[in-house]
Amino acid sequence: MKKLFAFLLVTAPGFSCFAQTTVPTPEIQIKAAVMAAPADKREGAAVYGYTGDGNLVLLRKGTNELICLADDPKQKGFSASCYHKDLEPFMARGRALRKEGKSGQEIFDAREQEAKSGKLKMPKNPTTLFSISANDEDFDKTTGEVKNGYIRSVVYIPFATAESTGLPLKPDGPGLPWIMDPGKHNAHIMINPPRPATATK
User: Which pTM does this prediction carry?
Assistant: First the structure.
């Protein structure tokens, strides 16, 4: 995450502000972030979110296997995700490289090389990520309510292929699984339910 060189702190109920971007309270960030997780996993999930100066910090310790990332207030739209704790080395490495200013392709290439060399430890078992997204106007930063959210799932199976799983390389229909980045360190099964007309694009 790039360092913000200037920020304005505004005193208002439930908010701080950096670089003209409002940041919900930790409680609101937690409430919205765990909406990405299955209902029975929400209460015990660890949650990372943002401080008023834009730093990513642990907002709540977890008691189960899920880690959730709150919406980044600097990005357009609402987006939160929850993933299995065994994916944390992969996710943390991506955040570190992004903070260094690396491009998406550079991040992919670095993690691919490090995973193949064994430096980056990828999960041995299939591990899941859940994400929820919505339009800006559908996320209430004062209550944490998200309307018209779109939830999708990803199952990481490093280095798996279409042949090893029997999955197609593209979806054969709405909501049907397919494999993306086959044979790569981040090979994963995509499960995208039909998108409601009101959901974010």
Answer: 0.84
Q: Is residue 153 part of a domain?
A: yes
Query: Mean pLDDT of all residues in the chain?
Result: 88
**How far apart (Å, rounded) are the C-alpha atoms in residues 11 and 50?**
17
Contact 81, 69 (CB under 8 A): yes
Alpha-carbon distance 59 to 56, whole Å? 9
Concatenated DSSP letters of 64-126: SSEEEE---TTSSSEEEEEEEGGGHHHHHHHHHHHHTT--HHHHHHHHHHHHHHTSS---SS-
Residue 74 lies in a domain: yes
Closest CA to 56 of 68, 64, 44: 68
Domains: count for the chain: 1
The one-letter amino acid code at 59 reads: L
Cα distance between residue 185 and residue 124, in whole Å: 11
The token pair that represents 154 in the structure block: 């990803």
- Interval 86-103: pLDDT, tens: 999 999 999 999 999 999
Q: 38: domain range?
A: 15-191
Report d(CA 122, CA 97) in Å as an integer: 17
Check if the beta carbon of residue 106 is closer than 8 Å to that of residue 60: no
The answer as to whether 3 is a domain residue is no
